[in-house]
């Protein structure tokens, strides 16, 4: 049953990722990978929240597996982050590449910590 949940959650995560990327790109433009940043930071927050809920509120491991691995695994993406960063550097935007790395690390870690704190507090 977990495998079916993983498959369905992965499909939903991939579709969500696509839609969020399109929406953010339309709003903010294609010059910087804002969509990937928003997606990865959001995913970090939700994963932190789930972890906090699992550790302190008894969310079952199957939920963590399906949502954390299936949904968020398909929603977030390290490979696109790396591709976007290299692309910025190759287009002569090393400052943009560095900003993407820095923002992804700081905001992603911060979002995960806030999610974890929220999960513990709920």
Report on the structure:
The model has no long low-confidence stretch (mean pLDDT 96). Helix 1 runs antiparallel to helix 2. Helices cover 88% and strands 0% of the residues. It starts with a helix and ends with a helix. With 122 residues, the protein is mainly alpha-helical. It is built from 5 helices and no strands.
What's the SSE blueprint?
Elements: H1 2-28, H2 34-57, H3 61-75, H4 78-90, H5 94-121
Which tags fit this structure?
122 residues, mainly alpha, 88% helix, globular
Q: Name the helix and strand elements from N-terminus to C-terminus, one letter apiece.
A: HHHHH
Poorly predicted ranges (pLDDT <50, ≥5 residues)? none
Major beta-sheet overview? none
**Rg (C-alpha, Å):** 16 Å
Q: In angstroms, what separates the terminal alpha carbons?
A: 28 Å
Which overall shape is indicated by the principal axes computed on the Cα atoms? globular
Helical proportion, percent range: over 70%
Instruction: Find the structural class using helix and strand composition.
Output: mainly alpha
């Amino acid at each position: 049953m977990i495998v079916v949940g993983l498959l369905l959650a992965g499909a939903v995560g991939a579709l969500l990722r696509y839609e969020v990327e399109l929406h953010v790109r339309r709003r903010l433009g294609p010059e910087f990978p804002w969509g990937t940043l928003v997606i990865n930071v959001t995913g970090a927050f939700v994963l932190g929240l789930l972890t906090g809920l699992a550790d302190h509120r008894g969310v079952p491991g199957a939920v963590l597996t399906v949502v954390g691995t299936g949904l968020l695994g398909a929603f977030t993406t390290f490979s696109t982050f790396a591709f976007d960063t290299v692309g910025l550097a190759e287009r002569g935007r090393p400052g943009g590449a560095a900003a993407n790395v820095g923002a992804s690390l700081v905001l992603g870690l911060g979002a995960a910590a806030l999610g974890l704190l929220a999960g513990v507090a709920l």
